[in-house]
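step 4 of 6: structure.
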Amino acid sequence: MRRIISVLMENAPGSLSRVVGLFSQRGYNIESLTVAPTEDETLSRLTLTTIGDDHKIEQITKHLNKLIDVVKLVDLTEGAHIEREVMLIKVKAAGAQRAEIKRCVDIFRGQIVDVTASLYIIQITGTSDKLDAFLQAVGDASILEVVRSGVSGIARGEKVLSL
Amino acid sequence: MLIRALRDEGVEYVFGYPGGAALHIYDAIFRQKDVKHILVRHEQAATHAADAYSRATGQVGTVLVTSGPGATNAVTGIATAYMDSIPMVVISGQVVSERIGEDAFQETDMVGISRPIVKHSFMVRDARDIPEVVKKAYYIAATGRPGPVVIDIPKDITSPFDTFPYEYPEKVKIRSYTPATRGHAGQIKKAVQLLLEAKRPVIYAGGGVIQGNGSELLTELARKLNYPVTNTLMGLGAYPGSDRQFLGMLGMHGTYEANMAMHHADAILAIGARFDDRVTNAVNKFCPNAKIIHVDVDPASISKTVTADIPIVGAVDSVLSEMMALVLEADQSPDASAIKNWWEQIEEWRDGHGLYTAPRYNTSGEKIMPQDVIKVLHEVTKGDAYVTSDVGQHQMFTAQYYLFDKPRRWINSGGLGTMGFGLPAAMGAQMADRDAVVVCVTGEGSIQMCIQELSTCTQYHLPIKIICLNNQALGMVKQWQDMQYDSRYSESLYEDSLPDFVKLAESYGHVGMRVTKKEELKAKMEECFALKDRVVFMDIYVDSTEHVYPMQIAGASMRDMWLSKTERT
C-alpha cells in the first residue's frame, strides 16, 4: 500500500543522507521525496512516499525514528490528510493541438505558464493521481519533458507535526 | 581540547594508530598522562580491542585513527561492534577542512563510509564544538541500544595554535533522542500473567541482558519460577552455564534440548534477543505453539522477523525487576505439575542427545577432539577466564563446551562473524582486567587475520593465552562443503603453507607450544596457564574431519537438526 511519511528532522549536514541511506540499506523503496527547511530553520521537513505492507511500514517508521537526526515523524496516510504535488510539463502545442491542450489544462485547473509558437509549459498541482491522469489525457505523443516535485502532505484538522 | 574532553569523559584507554591527519591529537596525548594510548599494529585491531574492552567492562571503548586508510581499516571493527550493539567511540582524523572534497592525500569520506554501520556520526566543523560533540558521542554510544559512534575531525580543528575557552558539559540533551527506559506497565503485567499460566515455558535470553546489566535479575527470576533458560551466542553468561536450569545455547549449533524446548514451548520470554536467523531457522516454522513475549530496548527489534504477542519496549533491568515484583506479589504461582512434566520432558531430551549428559562425539580415536580441548580449557581455567574467540568451528565448540557462569566473560563476534577478532579482543579484555586470565580460542585460519598483534602483546605485556585449534583447514567452510558440496574443498585448505606457529610466537618473544597427542593435552594446558606472565601460543592439532553438531537443517523448524554425520532428528 502507498504511504506518505512526513519527517521532521535536524536541518544538519548529513541528515538527508542518513534517511536515504536507511532506505537503500534495508531494501525499502522511495517513490518520491521532497525536503526543505521549515519555519524553524533548525528543522527540515521531509516527505516521502513509499510502498509496503503494514509490517514493512512499521519497520520503516521504527528505523526512521531510530535515526538520531529524526525528531518526529508521522504516517499521514493513517489519517485524513491533504497531499499535493506540483508538476511542470513541456508539451508540443502546434496547430489544432493547441486549443485541445488548452481545454485539457482548464479541465484539470492547471495553468499555462510559458508559451512559444510550438509549445506550452503547463503547471499543474494536485494529488499524484490527478497528475497521472493529466499526463494520460495529454498523451505521450505531445509530452517533451515532465518535472514533478514529489509529494508534500499535511494532516487535516488539529493534528500538527511540530516540536 | 579533544584529549581534555576524553579525560573529562573518564576515558582511561584509547586504542589507536597515528597518522598525518591525527598528529595534533597524538601530540596532545604525548603531553598528558591521564588518557593512555595503546598502539596496535593495524587499525582493525584497535577497534576490536576497544570493542572487547567495552564488552568486558560495560564502559565505552575508544579508538583513535587517522584519515584515509586509518579510517577504512577501522571499518570492519566498527561493523563488528554495530552488529553486536557494543558502545564504542571512534575518532578519525580528517584532512584539513579546506581540502575536503578535493581528493586530498589520505582523504576518505569517513562519515559516509561508516554511515550504515554506526549508531550516529559527527563531523566536527568548529573546534569550539569539540566538548559537546564528545559528550554527545559517548552519551549516544552508551544509552538505549548501544552502538558505535564516529567522530571525524579535520586536522585544522585540532590545531594547537588556536585556543578557545573550554568547558566540558555535565549533561547533554538531544531533542531527537530519547532512549527507552521503563517498559509499559500494562504490557509487563500481561507478560507475567502469560508466564505464570504457561505449561511449557522457555526463557530465551540474548546479549541485551548482558549489555543491559540484567544477568542477576534474570537469574533470580528464572530460579524463582523454576523455568528453563537458553542463551543465544551473544547471551552466554547471562545465565550461569553450569546451572541445572540452563539448557545451553539455542539455534543453528544450539543444543538438542534447547532447540527442542523452544519448538515445543507454549510461552517464550525473549529478552534482549533479536530472533536472529541463526537462532530461528525458518521463521514460518518457528515455535508454532508459543505465545511470545519480547522485551527489547530497541523498538525496531520487536516484530522485525518474528511477531511478538506481547511486545515490551524497555531496558531489560527495569523490566526484569518489575516482572519479579509482580511474580512475588501474584496470588498465582506456576502450575507445578505442568512444570514438573515439562522438566521431565527436557531431562529426557538431555539424556537422549544433550551435550552435557554424555559425549556426543567420537572419544575412542587417536586424534585430539576439539570438544575435549575446550573441556580441558574449562577445567584448567576453572571456568573463570575471559574467553575471546574468532569465527568458525572453534567458536561454536567454545560456545557449546565452555560453560560461562558469569556475564561479560565470553567475547566473540556474533552478528558480523569477524575472523581476526579474537586476538585483539583478548588484548582489550586484558587491558580491562590486568590480573585476569584471558584466553583467545582461535583457529589457524582466523589467527592469521590479525596475527601482527602478537607484537602489541609484547609491547604492553599482555599475557594472553592463545588456544589454536589447528585442523589445517577453514573448518566451518569445510564442514559446509562436506554437507552441501560433496566434500569439494574449494579454497578451504592451505596445502602445507601454514607457518610454524611455535617459532612465530617465539619470534615475538612469546612461548610457543605444539600439542599433537591426546594424552599430553591436559599437562600441556596446565603448563601453559602456569606461565602467568607470558603470552603462550598453544598450537593444538585436532581431528580435522570433525564437524560441529547439532546443526539445524536449513529451511526447517528449530527441532530439525543433524546430530552427527549420520543421525538426524
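step 5 of 6: annotate
 - The two ends of chain B are 62 Å apart (CA to CA).
 - The longest strand of chain B covers residues 88-94.
step 6 of 6: archive
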